[in-house]
Amino acid sequence: MALDRKTPNDLNAFWMPFTANRQFKKAPRMFVGAKDMHYTTADGRQVLDGTAGLWCCNAGHCRPRISEAIAKQAAELDYAPAFQMGHPAAFELANRIIEIAPEGMEHVFYTNSGSESVETALKLAIAYHRARGEGARTRLIGRERGYHGVNFGGISVGGIVTNRKMFGSLLTGVDHLPHTHLPAQNAFSKGQPEHGANLADELERIVTLHGAETIAAVIVEPMAGSTGVLLPPKGYLQRLREITKKHGILLIFDEVITGFGRLGSAFAAQHYGVQPDMMTTAKGLTNGVIPMGAVLTTAAVHDAFMQGPEHMIELFHGYTYSGNPIAAAAGIATLETYKEEGLFERCAELAPYWQEALHSLRGTRHVIDIRNEGLIGAVELEPIAGEPTKRAFSAFLKAYEKGILIRTTGDIIAMSPPLIISKAQIDELIGTLKSVLDTLD
Questions:
Q1: Last residue in a domain, options 340, 369, 399
Q2: What are the E-state strand segments in 70-197?
Q3: pTM recorded for the entire structure
Q4: In angstroms, rounded to a whole number, what is the distance separating the alpha carbons of residues 280 and 287?
Q5: pLDDT tens digit sequence for 408-439
Q6: 93 and 52, same structural domain?
Q7: Cα 286 from chain centroid (whole Å)
Q8: For the chain, how far is it from start to end, CA to CA, in angstroms?
Q9: Domain end call among 340, 357, 383
Q10: Spatial distance between the Cα atoms of 105 and 98, rounded to a whole number of angstroms
C-alpha cells in the first residue's frame, strides 16, 4: 500500500522536539509542501513563512539549484568516509565558505548541526590551549539567556533555564556573563540599543574571580536569537573582543542563526565589525535542506594542532557525516543561490522597510517591546499573570490559522523570513500579525 503522506494513520510513535506533544496530536498542524515563501498545509492552505523554517531556509523553499545538486550528487557519490579519505565537494565548499567569511578565518571543520558545531568549538578551544602548553585553561564562559544548541556542552554554556534545569549538573568549570536585555533603558530600539556596552566588563570580574590562566574561551551569539532576539548594545562586542585578547582567551561567535546573510552581511562578525577566533555555523549553510554545520577557525587555532609526526592524527574528533557528499553539494548550491540572487545585499536593502513595518506594531494590544536587526524581529508581549507563554502561544496558533508562520519563545514572537521576501509579503506578514494581536485576551 502506498504511503499517504498527507494523513499519517498514527501520531503516537514520533516524540516531537520542542513541542507541546499532547496539544499538537489533538489538533495536528501538518505541512505537506513548500515553495519559495510559502508552505502548503495538509488541507491545501498556503502559509507565509515568517521564520525561514527554523531560522534556516534563507533562500526560501524548494529552490531548483539546490534540489538538482542534491539529486545529482546522490546519483554519483552518496557517501564517502570522512576519516583518512576525502571527496572534492567537501574541499570546494570549505573554500567557498572561507571566501565569504571574515578576514582571518581560514579553516573549516564540518559537523552536522549547530549543536555539534558548538560542541566542536568548545573542544577545540580547550585542546588549543593544551596544545600550546596552557592546559590549565579549561574554563568556558557563556552568557545568561544564551542558546548554543542542546548537547551537554551547549546547554552548559547556554543560559536558557528551561533547556538546562532537567539535565543534572551539566559541565563543570562554566561561568556566565549577564545577558544584554535592558528593557527599562532600551525598549523599542531600532537596531542596536544605545545602553549596555558596560555589561561586557563583567568578563573582567569573572577573570578576577577565576584567573585568566584558567579560562579557555568565551562563547556568545553576536545577536541572541532563540531566546527572543536580544541585540548587542553599541560597543558591547568590541569591548568583549578587547578583554578576551587582553587575557589570551578565545572568543567564539555562535553564528548558527546570524550566519549566511541574516543581518545583511555574510556573517554577523562582519556586520558588527568584530573578529572572533572561531565561528559556529549550520542552518543557512545548506538552506536547511540537509543537516550540516561547520566551525570556522583562524590559522592560529588550526596551526596549533599541526605539530608532531605527519602520519599522526592531529585531532581526535569528528563525525561519521562530517563533510557528507550530499550535504556538501547542497552547501555549494546554496552559496551559489545566495550569490547569484544577491540575497545578502537584498537583506540589507529590505532591512529599513522591515524595521518600519515591524515597529508599526507599537501600541498594539499587549505589545511591550519590539526589537529588530537585519531581517530579524521580535515582538514581546505582556505575559498573562500566572500563565507565562500562554498569550504568545495563542498568537502562534491564531497566526497559523490566518496563514502566517511565526515562532514563539516565552512570551516573545520571533520572526526571520526568508531573504527572498517582498515588501508586499512583509506588509502581509505584519498586517496579519497585527490582526492576530488585536484578538488576544
A1: 340
A2: 105-111, 139-143, 174-177
A3: 0.96
A4: 16
A5: 999 999 999 999 999 999 999 999 999 999 99
A6: no
A7: 13
A8: 47
A9: 340
A10: 6
